[in-house]
Design a protein that fits this description.
Layout: H1 16-26, H2 28-47, H3 55-80, H4 88-110, H5 115-143, H6 148-167, E1 172-173, H7 181-184, H8 189-216, H9 224-246, H10 253-271, H11 273-283, H12 285-290, H13 295-321, E2 323-324, H14 332-342, H15 354-373, H16 378-402
Length: 403
């Protein structure tokens, strides 16, 4: 008697311990940087007698990481394709200077009684400047075949000159009402709890939706208990974060903007053709070309995206600092690249995640904050950051070679 089989039936899930081992082996680099972050936090908490974990310091820590994080998210897409962008720091700085200039010298005279409209117009112009510069660099790189390293290095020098031209060597105030709220504002505590509840519901909904999708297509299901543990863990992190920052002044506006941006970029990287093409190009450019992927168009769009995120970072920078200065954006490109690499983005291309870039950015920000609290000299801070970055690159090469 013939026995019928359902080829579309989902494969049974594995045991909890087996699933844990499998996940750890396949994501060992990700778990390593998470453990490194936890170790850094514990070390600074001990050395500062707990001051590192005060509500105010945690709030400031996450606020300070936002500018670097916006740049690091875009840098993931750039590095994944095997390129680099050395101009993002100065582009963010130039956008901050332009936004400050319009706030102080244009809108203040044209519409002095409309601070909200002035803030909105400054944001639009600032982001537009970032996108236009991304279009220019992307076109030269993608369609004129000039190496990204050279184009963006030249762009960094050009932007530095533009900053000096706009500022005329002076500091431009950008602390007008509404505009300053972009990076210095806080949400009411009740709003923070509402957002936390929405995020927790979304995490559980997404988990069950993903399981249903895998079952429908006949893929092996992960252990339900493990997925519940992971989802509960991230839910507790969100709840704990909201509780902790509410002890100070509430969830920070730039952190909320960063979270929204990160979720959008993570969705793009994992669930869209644009994102899959980026990883395919970095993994094997020739194979991607033979598969029919328009490599030039993809790289062009990625640099436009990088310009967009640099524009957002510049607006947040101007609002956070409250001024447009001649040194605006100095060194942010190095922090962004370091954050992406620390987060697991491979310098060889084809590997990297938005979530990892955020962890890397948090590590960089934690190092800076902790060392400053310990009154460590700037020279030693640079040495520590450089050493951490070299170790991260070595780990990337080591893990990729073993795989």
């Amino acid at each position: 008697m013939a026995v019928s089989t359902n080829v579309n039936a989902p494969k049974p899930s594995t045991g909890l311990s087996a699933e844990l081992g499998k996940r750890f082996r396949s994501n060992i680099q990700t778990y390593t940087i998470i453990l490194a972050l936890i170790a850094i936090w514990i070390l600074f908490a001990v050395l500062t007698n707990g001051a590192f974990f005060t509500a105010q310091n945690v709030s400031n820590l996450f606020r300070q990481m936002t500018v670097t994080s916006f740049l690091a998210i875009g840098m993931v897409f750039v590095i994944v394709t095997g390129n680099i962008d050395l101009s993002v720091g100065k582009l963010a700085g130039f956008v901050s200077v332009v936004a400050a200039y319009f706030q102080a010298n244009v809108w203040y005279q044209m519409i002095p009684d409309q601070p909200l409209i002035a803030a909105i117009l400054s944001v639009i112009i600032g982001v537009g400047v970032g996108v236009l510069f991304g279009v220019l660099q992307g076109y030269i790189i993608a369609f004129l075949n000039v190496p990204a390293f050279i184009v963006t290095l030249g762009g960094m020098f050009v932007l530095n000159g533009l900053i000096l031209l706009v500022t005329q060597g002076k500091t431009i105030p950008a602390n007008q009402p509404y505009f300053s709220e972009i990076a210095q504002g806080y949400l009411p505590p009740i709003a923070g709890w509402i957002i936390a509840a929405i995020v927790v519901v979304f995490l559980f909904w997404n988990m069950f939706r993903s399981r249903q999708s895998r079952a429908r297509h006949g893929f092996e299901l992960s252990n339900l208990g493990l997925e519940l543990i992971v989802t509960i863990f991230f839910s507790l992190l969100v709840i704990g974060y909201v509780y902790w920052v509410n002890q100070y002044r509430g969830v920070q506006t730039p952190v909320l903007l960063l979270a929204i941006t990160a979720m959008i970029m993570a969705y793009i990287s994992n669930n869209t053709r644009f994102g899959r093409y980026a990883y395919a190009i970095g993994g094997n450019r020739e194979a991607a070309r033979l598969s029919g992927i328009n490599i030039r168009r993809s790289i062009f769009l990625i640099f436009i995206l990088m310009g967009l995120l640099s524009g957002i970072a510049g607006i947040v920078l101007a609002s956070y600092v409250g001024y447009g200065t001649t040194a605006a954006g100095q060194g942010y490109e190095l922090d962004a690249i370091a954050s992406a690499i620390l987060g697991g983005t491979s310098t060889l291309g084809g590997v990297g995640t938005v979530f990892g870039a955020l962890i890397g950015s948090l590590i960089m920000s934690s190092l800076t904050t902790g060392l400053q609290m310990l009154n460590v000299a700037p020279a030693w801070q640079y040495l520590v950051k450089g050493g951490v970055l070299v170790l991260a690159v070595y780990a990337d090469v080591y893990f990729k070679k073993n795989r």
